[in-house]
Every structure is written in C-alpha cells, then in structure tokens.
C-alpha cells in the first residue's frame, strides 16, 4: 500500500386518548356479574391499544442488530446525507445509529495509513482488483465517530487497481493520499481548497469506449500521488520520477474507465469540492475492497 504521508430503550409508550383515567371514587363490585363485565372491558381495551401499534414497532427491518450491520455500513443512494433533514432520527422518532468509531470496510493496515489529523476521508472502494467500477463515500469525523455521506458511483482505471503503480499500467494506485489542491476548466464552485481555474484543463478526444473526453477536467481534485502538495494539479513535478506515473485526480466522469484517476459525476464533483475543508486535513483512501480490508 502506498501513502503520501509518512505515518502511517425504547421509551415507554406515551399514553393515548384511549388510556383509562382514574374514576372520581372507588368502584364497588357488588356482584359476580359486575366483576365479569369489568374484566371483559379491560381485556377489550388492552386489545384495542395493541392494535394501534401494529406495524410501528421495532422489527428485523428496523433494528440494525437484526440485519448484522448498520445503515452506515451499507450506504444507499436514497439515504439522507449527513446533516440533511431526517439524518438524525428515524420514522419512529428514535435517535439515529451512532457514527462508528472506525470507518467500515477498512482493515487495520489501511487504517494505520490514515493520518491522525484527518477529519475528512473520501473512501473509494473498487468492486475487485481488476474492475474499473467503484463507489465513493465521504466520511467526516464527528468527535466520537465517522459519519458517512451518501454513496456515489465512481469509475477508476481500465485495468483496475495496483499497489505498485507505474506510468501506463492503466491501473489506479492503491493507498492513502492527501487532498490539498483543486482546479478546473470551470470557475471555482465554492471550494475551500486552493483552486486553479485554467484553460490548461481543457481536454478533447475519446476514451477507451469511444466516449468523448470533453468536460472531464471541468472540476478536479489532485490526489497527492507522486506530486508536490500545494501546487496546481497541472504541475508536472514528479518526486518519484516520471516512470512512476502522476496526474492522478478525482475528476468529472466521462462515461468510461480512466487511465488511473477516479471519476465522479459533475454534480458529485461539485458536492465534493464544496465539502472538502483543508482545516479537516482531507485524504482519499482508494483501492479494491479486498485490499482495503487488510
């Protein structure tokens, strides 16, 4: 693995309008008939009360423990993003699942590479070692755990992933890398990262599947693999040498695999740029799922 850093219960049910109120005085049961009548009335009230809660209790679908995980371990495109309305509670009004202490899907080796100062982590998980489809999730540390944003579909290099990247191998480098600089052909969408708006990000031609590449670099975030942090993504300085590749970015998806970068839809790139905060020392953790579990 490579890195751009050196270091590696439910509350009691509230009473309803149907709840029985104490009477003004003691009830005198003078005969067995009255006693049986009262018993039948109590049983009927209990049955009616239980019926009001049908379908609203906690079952296997509601309880994360019953499904073997939490909603944060299985993000979905329809789940509310962190901070969005509905992200802090459930339909039953119970508190949402607490943020996990460790980012799901990352093993001890991968976690050891994440700098202790990092409070934002973009996790890009490849489907397998040779796949060029992946998923990206932005996590933010809340002080007590890692809160996940929505899962975004992503693409990576044509031939998948590698932990020994070389120029032209058409694989994305596995590792943990800082995110310090951004830029693009389009104006700054509102990021707090240094942003280089330049015509140098213009691109033409076609990709591996014949798709047009135009617009791919409208927005980019430089991944600090074999580059000098604090410079424009267009800077060509390669500290490890040109043969180890470079120019590895997060950029706009062009509907096809990349040469080594990770691509997201244009809207998700804007969302990411607006979310990243250099004060939170953001990093990207990227690789195939099996490698990231190590």
Short description:
The protein is an alpha/beta fold and 294 residues long. The chain has helices at residues 32-52, 108-113, 266-275, 289-292; strands spanning 2-3, 120-126, 133-141, 146-155, 161-162, 172-173, 175-178, 181-184, 195-197, 220-222, 249-252, 262-264, 283-288. Helices cover 14% and strands 20% of the residues.
Shape: globular
Query: How large a portion of the residues is in β-strands, by DSSP E?
Result: 15-25%
- How helix-rich are the residues, as a percent range? 10-25%
Radius of gyration from the CA trace? 27 Å
The multimeric state of the shown protein is single chain
SS class: alpha/beta
Largest sheet: 6 strands, mixed
Strand order of the largest sheet: 1-7-13-2-3-4
Terminal residue distance: 10 Å
Number of discrete helical segments: 4
* Spans where pLDDT lies below 50 across 5 or more residues: 1-95
Count of strand segments: 13
Average pLDDT taken over every residue:
76
Order of helices and strands: EHHEEEEEEEEEEEHEH
Set down the secondary structure blueprint.
Blueprint: E1 2-3, H1 32-52, H2 108-113, E2 120-126, E3 133-141, E4 146-155, E5 161-162, E6 172-173, E7 175-178, E8 181-184, E9 195-197, E10 220-222, E11 249-252, E12 262-264, H3 266-275, E13 283-288, H4 289-292
Parallel strand pairs: 1-7, 2-13, 5-6, 8-9, 11-12
Antiparallel strand pairs: 2-3, 3-4, 7-13, 8-10, 10-11
């Amino acid at each position: 693995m490579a890195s751009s850093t050196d270091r590696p219960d439910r509350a009691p049910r509230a009473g309803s309008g149907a709840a029985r109120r104490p009477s003004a005085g003691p009830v005198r049961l003078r005969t067995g008939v009255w006693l049986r009548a009262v018993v039948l009335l109590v049983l009927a009230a209990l049955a009616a009360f239980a019926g009001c809660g049908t379908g609203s209790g906690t079952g296997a679908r509601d309880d994360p423990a019953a499904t073997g995980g939490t909603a944060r371990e299985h993000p979905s495109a329809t789940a509310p993003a962190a901070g969005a309305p509905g992200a802090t509670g459930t339909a039953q009004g119970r508190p949402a699942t607490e943020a996990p202490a460790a980012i799901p899907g990352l093993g001890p080796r991968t976690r050891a590479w994440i700098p202790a100062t990092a409070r934002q982590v973009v996790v890009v998980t490849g489907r397998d070692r040779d796949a060029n489809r992946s998923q990206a999730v932005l996590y933010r540390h809340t002080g007590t755990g890692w809160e996940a944003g929505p899962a975004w579909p992503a693409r990576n290099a044509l031939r998948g992933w590698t932990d020994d990247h070389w120029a032209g191998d058409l694989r994305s480098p596995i590792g943990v890398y800082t995110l310090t600089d951004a830029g693009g052909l389009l104006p700054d969408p509102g990021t707090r990262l240094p942003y280089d708006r330049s015509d140098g990000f213009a691109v033409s031609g076609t990709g591996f599947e014949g798709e047009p590449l135009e617009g791919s670099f409208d927005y980019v975030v430089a991944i600090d693999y074999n580059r000098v942090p604090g410079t424009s993504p267009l800077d060509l300085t390669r500290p490890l040498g040109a043969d180890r590749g470079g120019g590895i970015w997060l950029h706009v998806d062009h509907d096809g695999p990349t040469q080594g970068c990770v691509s997201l839809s244009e809207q998700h790139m804007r969302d990411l740029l607006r979310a990243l905060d250099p004060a939170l020392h953001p990093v990207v953790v990227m690789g195939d799922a099996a490698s990231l579990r190590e």
